[in-house]
Design goal:
Length: about 750
């Protein structure tokens, strides 16, 4: 940093020079207006279409290999759980929004189902690190994944690709755009992928698991009746059918069986195969429409974004890790949301630029129903259906401005006020097949309001055209909600507040051949929301005393020559709970003959009282009679690491073009290292460190229209679990993708 700042500061200006043959400028909308990312006092990793291809990224889940401070895991097969710098989601379920917000073309995706996005028609992905509590204030305490899809053009253009890979994977995607009239243009994009062979098997039924079929469609209509007016109508649909969630038990199950040994004895792979009395099923869809209006008003732009989204997810799975029908979970989740945002944005003339706006959201999310069956429900003769509906009405107003104190120094300040009104309705319908009696229980509705003032303040100074430093303080707010499980009274998830302090350096060095951006950060996080699966049901609760997080991350791009570009990133994070005296911890069964839960006590973080555990949570029967699985108790996890947060992540990649008379050959590769992470608050269950390597070689014919690409992902066939946990049924996890490879043929016209 000192060397960079000490470089000659000739011809100083607040704007870096335009890129010539060095690293290309990256234009982002991190502050609601188009700006060079090197001028924005926010840590940003932005990926273009070419960057995405070079990194082997095809979905938001893959972004962790290109954005080291980002870790994306999945829960129940269909919920995306992104985490940036230790701030993220371990809790998920209907009505629980991610603390890393996802925006697609300016539209907020509130459902955790929507966090898993295909990147088939994307123009740019920008990951904003740290709380975005002002301009993108909707629950963005960890950061923001900002996805911009391709826009309609008046010139006719088309592209398509067709691929085949191992595991009998067939894929196709296409994009077409053009003008319908002098002021009217359209675009249409679609994608289909079918993985016919699964990554594993159910050794009990003999059928494949982790097969997957997805299909996507997006259409846009652009109308520009004048130079001052732009109106875009957009619609999209995404569907998924899979043999998921395929949770693999890697300990003793509730029947006392050593599951890995049982799977191996049946000729299976203990890492990827499951042992279950039936095969898992996942059916998901999300669809939506939006209308974006931009109107120039004489130096000020008025923008309106109106959107409606609806998501559905059904997951039918066996959480008990045995081939006995002890417990079967059939969850049917639904989420509907309407959002309206209006922004008034100044142009970039003059020393002061500003944004003022308002945001409104109304949503309804719940289970319709969540069904439990099995031997634990009326001896396998009946069912218990839980219907829940969590409503939200939210309104927020915000203002943000940047003022040039001098030619080289700017100060930015912003403020936002958010008011949320939550309500919950619930009903339980239980049918006892032994008696033929149906019992319906209505629960009293409940309401709760949450409100918060958030802000940001930053100062940046350009020491030279190549070097800019900044310091910032941001407050982020993740609203509270009701826990989507039936209880009397309903449990409330308290809000999270993150106070984030950051210093950063953005540099373009060595005649703009090297771009190195570095940031150091310290977070004070309150009331962390934590998940624990109990008796097959996701339970979410607060670590009331919060956590503290600090670390360093860096992004590097080196344009070695016109044809060779290297890129990489590094993140080190230390993220730990403060006082967490009533965490849920796990003790593996079988336990000793004298074991009793009452011998274990904890301090209630709300009352400060010392409380003895009365029983193992969710366990059916006496603890000393259990042959396997885990006893879940309340205990002390103070000072322990936050879940799903690696200490160190690192990536290094490159792209090399080799022009020849027969066309251009492009070699790309990306290496990713993950230091591993803990899965439980007590740190007992862990994911070990792992490495992945992705690579491809592409040939483009001399006209640059037709290409053939050979590609491979996780070429070393590294085994890792993208999600792990400790439940009553044992320690289990969801395996990441093995080695995959294939060929893709495409054209761009």
């Amino acid at each position: 940093m000192a060397i960079a700042i000490a470089m000659p500061a000739v011809a100083q200006t607040t704007e870096p020079p335009a890129a010539t043959d060095g690293v290309s400028d990256i234009i982002v909308t991190a502050q609601k207006r188009t700006e060079n990312a090197q001028n924005v006092a926010v840590a940003i990793t932005a990926l273009s279409t070419q960057d995405i291809a070079a990194s082997g990224v095809t979905s938001t889940e893959d972004l962790r290999a290109a954005v080291p401070s980002l870790n994306v895991t999945t829960a129940a097969g269909g919920f995306g759980l992104p985490r940036i710098r230790g701030v993220g989601a371990t809790g998920q379920g209907a009505g629980i929004e991610n603390p890393v917000a996802v925006y697609v073309d300016g539209v907020y995706y509130g459902s955790a189902i929507g966090a898993l996005q295909s990147l088939f028609d994307v123009e740019q992905v920008a990951v904003l690190k740290g709380p975005q509590g002002t301009l993108f204030g909707r629950n963005a305490t960890g950061g923001l994944i900002q996805i911009t899809t391709r826009k309609p053009s008046y010139d006719y253009t088309a592209s398509a690709r067709f691929g085949y890979g191992n595991y009998d994977t067939v894929s196709a995607a296409a994009f077409v755009s053009g003008g319908l009239a002098p002021t009217l243009a359209f675009s249409l994009a679609g994608q289909y992928e079918n993985r016919g062979d699964g990554y594993g098997k159910n050794v009990y039924t003999g059928k494949d698991i982790q097969t997957d079929r997805t299909y996507s469609l997006r259409g846009k209509l652009l109308w520009e009746p004048s130079d001052a007016t732009s109106i875009t109508l957009s619609g999209d649909y995404f569907g998924r059918q899979a043999a998921d969630p395929a949770f693999v038990t890697f300990s003793r199950n509730s029947a006392g069986q050593d599951v890995p040994a049982v799977i191996a004895s049946l000729g299976g792979d203990p890492q990827r195969d499951i042992y279950s009395d039936f095969d898992p099923t996942l059916r998901g869809s999300q669809k939506g429409a939006s209308l974006t209006i931009d109107q120039e008003l004489g130096g000020v732009n008025l923008r309106s974004i109106t959107a409606y989204r609806k998501t559905k997810l059904r997951t039918f799975f066996d959480p008990d890790g045995t081939v006995q029908p002890r417990l079967r979970i059939d969850n049917n989740n639904r989420d509907k949301q309407f959002t309206q945002e209006i922004d008034l944005i100044s142009d970039n003339d003059g020393p002061f630029n500003w944004v003022i706006g308002g945001f409104y959201m109304k949503s309804s999310a719940g289970q319709y129903p969540g069904r439990t069956t099995g031997l634990t429900t009326f001896g396998g003769n009946g069912y218990s259906d839980d219907f829940t509906d969590i409503g939200l009405e939210s309104i927020a107003g915000f203002a943000d401005g940047t003022y040039k104190l001098s030619e080289n120094t700017k100060i930015t300040a912003g403020i936002r006020y958010t008011y949320d009104q939550r309500d919950i309705d619930a009903q339980r319908v239980a049918y006892n097949g032994n008696t033929g009696v149906t019992t319906t229980t209505e629960y009293d509705a409940a309401k709760r309001s949450f409100k918060k003032l958030t802000w940001r303040l930053s100062v940046d100074h350009r020491f030279s055209p190549e070097v800019m430093a900044y310091a910032s303080y941001n407050r982020g707010f993740r609203s509270g909600t009701f826990v989507p499980q039936i209880a009397t009274p309903f449990n409330v998830l308290e809000p999270e507040v993150v106070d984030a302090y950051e210093v950063g350096l953005k540099t373009d060095l060595f005649d703009r051949k090297v771009r190195l951006n570095v940031a150091g950060y310290y977070y004070d996080q309150s009331a962390v929301q934590v998940i624990q699966v109990i008796a097959g049901v996701n339970n979410v609760y607060n670590a009331r005393k919060g956590a503290r997080i600090y670390g360093v991350d860096a992004d590097l791009t080196w344009q070695v020559s016109d044809n060779l570009r290297l890129f990489g990133g590094f993140n080190w994070t230390d993220a730990r709970y403060n006082s967490f005296t009533d965490a849920i911890i796990s003790i593996p069964y079988p336990v000793g003959a004298g074991f009793t839960p009452s011998a274990y006590s904890y301090v209630d973080s709300k009352t400060g009282a010392t409380v003895a555990n009365t029983s193992c949570l969710g366990t059916f029967g006496a603890p000393t009679a259990q042959l396997g699985g885990n006893c879940l108790l309340r205990g002390d996890a103070s000072g322990n690491k936050l879940q799903n947060t690696p200490d160190i992540t690192f990536s290094l990649g490159g792209s090399l073009d080799i022009p020849t008379s027969a066309g251009t050959f492009t070699l790309t590769g990306n290496y990713y290292y993950n230091d591993g992470f803990v899965a439980t608050a007590d740190e007992r269950v862990k994911q070990a460190s792992y490495n992945t390597v992705d690579a491809s070689i592409t040939w483009k014919e001399p006209g640059d229209k037709f290409y053939v690409r050979l590609w491979g992902k996780n070429l070393t066939d590294a085994f890792y679990r993208s999600q792990i946990s400790a439940t009553n049924s044992g320690d289990n996890g969801y395996a990441g993708a093995p080695r995959t490879y294939g060929v893709t043929l495409g054209f761009d016209y």
